[in-house]
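tool=predict chain=A
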Amino acid sequence: MTFFSKETRHLTGERYFGIDLAKRESQVAVLDANGVQIESKRFATTRESFLALAAEFRIGDVAALEVTTNSTSIARLLRDNSPARVIVSNPIKTKVIAQAKIKTDKIDARVLAELARVGYLPEVWLPDEDTEALRQFITDRTSLVRRRTECKNTIHSVLHRNLVRQEKTDLFGATGRRWLESVIRGVTPATTPVAELDRMRIGSLLNEIDRIDALVADLESVIASYVALLRRCALDLSIRRLLTQRPHHKARTCRGPLAHYRSGRVSSPLSRADACPLHAYPAKTQPQRRRCRRRTQARRARSSPAHTRGRLHLSPSTPHAGEACPLALPRSP
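tool=predict ok
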């Protein structure tokens, strides 16, 4: 069963697809290279439908969709299962570029396809799966912290409404919590009495803060473990890329401890247990050591000051006042 009509499948040249995403049903519009609409279709927002849509994409096709809740998953699904170029646009900037008085799913899909055809669609960066998962963790932590701040502000509001003056530096620290517990129990004669319902509300808010603190601590430990795992995987990948053989590099242009791997002397460094960068260079012979010594001496001579070249050296005798330091030729052997 095909997804598009016969006209869309047999259309030659570039094709532009504008996809207006929705929770239950989505709309797709197909334009040719001249901007003529070939087809407009409504389909269910399911994984099977998008797989069928991706199966009919070909090289040169452009699919455009706006950022929404499930747009990242759908864009990644289309990119992984089709050769088409997938553009995820910023809906705020798209609205500024193409403002329409009549807004329907068909018109939105047509506008996306038209903007993609003329190259005016503001594209956003699509993160990978690991970055997207880490973003979700950070978003959950942000929501919890905001809810905790809201609870603390509510407690301040309840105390202020009851004309209760507190002089604690940190109301939610150790001393402040003990003072709040005494307010809840109603055993603070030095302060204005608080209504029973407000005391019950303060107690429930404190319990909510304790619960959120535990959730934030657990979430932060998960985030730290996830970041450590990502860093370790990235480090392993970087090491593997460094150790991977690159035949297009010449041996004389390679420098560093991985030169023998890149020059082809070690065919597969990851498959050999004895292939280690510390043992990449073989032991130098006597002529090689002499050549290295000559190069070192020549390099030191070039980097030495001008008055010390030609084996000239300063005389050990101390000059008199107003006299220049005499230069003495080296003694003949």
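The two ends are 97 Å apart (CA to CA). Strands lie at 16-20, 25-31, 37-44, 62-66, 85-89, 313-314, 327-328.
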